[in-house]
Amino acid sequence: NVNYKYGDLIEASGKLKIPNGKRNPGGMDSKAYLMQKGITCTMFSKKIRKLGIYKQNPFVKVAYNLRDKVICFYKDNLPDNLSSLLAGIVFGLKGGIPREVLRSFEESGALHFLAVSGTHVVIILGAIYYLLLNSYYLKNCSFIITSIFGLMYCFMAGLSPSVIRATIMFTIFMLGSYVGRRSDSINSLSLAATII
Predict the structure, then answer these.
(1) Cβ count near 78 (within 10 Å)
(2) Taking a C-beta distance cutoff of 8 angstroms, is the pair 171, 154 a contact?
(3) Are strands 48-53 and 8-12 parallel, antiparallel or unpaired?
(4) Are 118 and 166 spatial neighbours (Cβ–Cβ below 8 Å)?
(5) How much is the pTM?
(6) What pLDDT shows up at residue 73?
(7) CB 152 within 8 A of CB 171
(8) 56, 6 contact by CB (below 8 A)
């Protein structure tokens, strides 16, 4: 198996297919889900060829490289099932999770734990911000460092709307603390919605 990375230029042939909508009442609407991610068609191809490297955004490349290093750290220090599960919880990557595990999450109604949400952002950025605030040398840079990492985490987690919204709101909260003003949750949410 060939692992393709961000920036790889590939060639593939196949028939484009429009995703199916909701088939059963209360079921998943695959078409709407993919449309949210900017995907309008899908294609299955047996032959995929790598042509080279396309233009890369340096910031996005750093974010993806950092994500790959974190996942490698999980794989080196945890059993396969746990490392893939942790990658799913932290970054929303379900590709390496065994089908039996995914089925267990689905049957127990806990599949949403594998979808990166605002809770993930608050926990991760909150922990970083707290540690930096209590650091003697980096206290004054805590807002800038946490904001940069928050932007990187957005890319690492696939730029889902919930992650972007939570990152913007948390950044506004930090900015309010930095300038000595109390942030308003409704105003923060409105600004996040406007930006998204």
Answers:
(1) 14
(2) no
(3) antiparallel
(4) yes
(5) 0.69
(6) 92
(7) no
(8) yes
